[in-house]
Here is the input.
Amino acid sequence: MKTTYRRQLAMMVGVIALSFCMLGTAFMLLSYRYIISEKRVAMQRNANDIAALATDYISSVWGGDIHSNAFQGAIAVVAKASDTYVVVADVSGRITYATDGYQLFTYESTFLPSGVVEQLLAEGSYIGMTNLDGIYPERRYLAAQPYFIRLGTQSLAQGFILVSADTSSVSELWSAIATIFFFTAVVVVLIACIASSLTSAYQSRPLNEMAEAARKFGQGEFDVRVTGYENRLDEIGALANAFNSMANSLAKVESQRSDFIANVSHELKTPMTTISGFAEGILDGTIPPERERESLEIIVSETRRLSRLVRRMLELSRLKALTENVTAQEQFDLTEVVSRVLVSLEGKITARSLDVDARLPDGALMVWGDPDAITQVCYNLMDNAAKFAAQGTAITVEISKKDGKALVSISNLGATIPPDELPLLFDRFHKADYSRSVDRDGVGLGLYIVKTVLGNLKENITVTSEDGVTKFTFTLTLA
Here is the structure.
């Protein structure tokens, strides 16, 4: 399996190596051409200077002999200083003598190639790479110029000056430059490989830790966290923080699931035990006939309680499907919905000796939303208020308008909810411990359903609890 570390390391090393290859190729070509160009320019300049010297020499002293020791010595100095090989030939192309600055060479019946002579006479110069048809043992860079004798305003070619240089010096210089560049490139590539290796390991290590943590999550270990990257400000640090947040959420969900199972087990165990006990008592005669009706009423009550629990579970399943689709919205009268819910809860409110302070608009108040879903929201909130309100107190239901929104507030007087408990009220399966003995019908789904419905409608709900007054307020968009 190709790991991220190997893939990233190979990519970085490959890019660096390719870059150096391209850079090296371009550098070698440019440097080689530059060296050759400089050498040719130098030889052409030397040829011009020597040709000008020969022209001045034979023109200033009529009949001056270019074979004189003085002229040969001057040419030898130039050849030695420029590390070149100077050849002197007459106008017919016959070589008269040559020098490398150290000794003089004479040639007998040796002529320049006719092509070189013709180009010199026609164009006045020659430059190229040649062995002069075997005069040189190898190909050399060659620059040639004719020299003249001035006769008044006219100039007459008297011969040619050829300056050549061995390519070995140029090749040695270029080879030295190439060696230095290659050595430098190897060192840089090695350093880059080490740096890339460390960088790749630095980046892949947290990914491996997260993968290992994810495997442990799959085995049920939800307490694993990725640590040591809290202070990193790059994408890895952000990923580690997001991963830990996800782990916290998973741990929270697992805790809620465990609490839900415990709650459901608790809620199911009591009524089932009660139903089983009274049914067996009626069947085996333990319960006398005169108490059978009372026992059957208890069985019916506990059966209804089980039915409510199952219904809430079905509502939860329906909400899961609802969150995957956009809730259809329509205009409806909010005042009518709230009033209808109050009427449906009249029996429960009266049974607990509660009053209702309804502060509703006189006429219709049209809002956007799903009337059935909002009916469920109002029912759950009012039922909750009636359930936890202190006996003999009042439930306040108020509808107001603000900034294009309808605000529905439902409050009751009872036990104050601790501040750290308020953010958890809308969590799925959450059920405060202090309410367990009071809320015998609930399983911690009512407020979660409220939050989910309003969230699907893009609306908000808030809760406050101070001095025994608990108040829920949600919004709806005015039509």
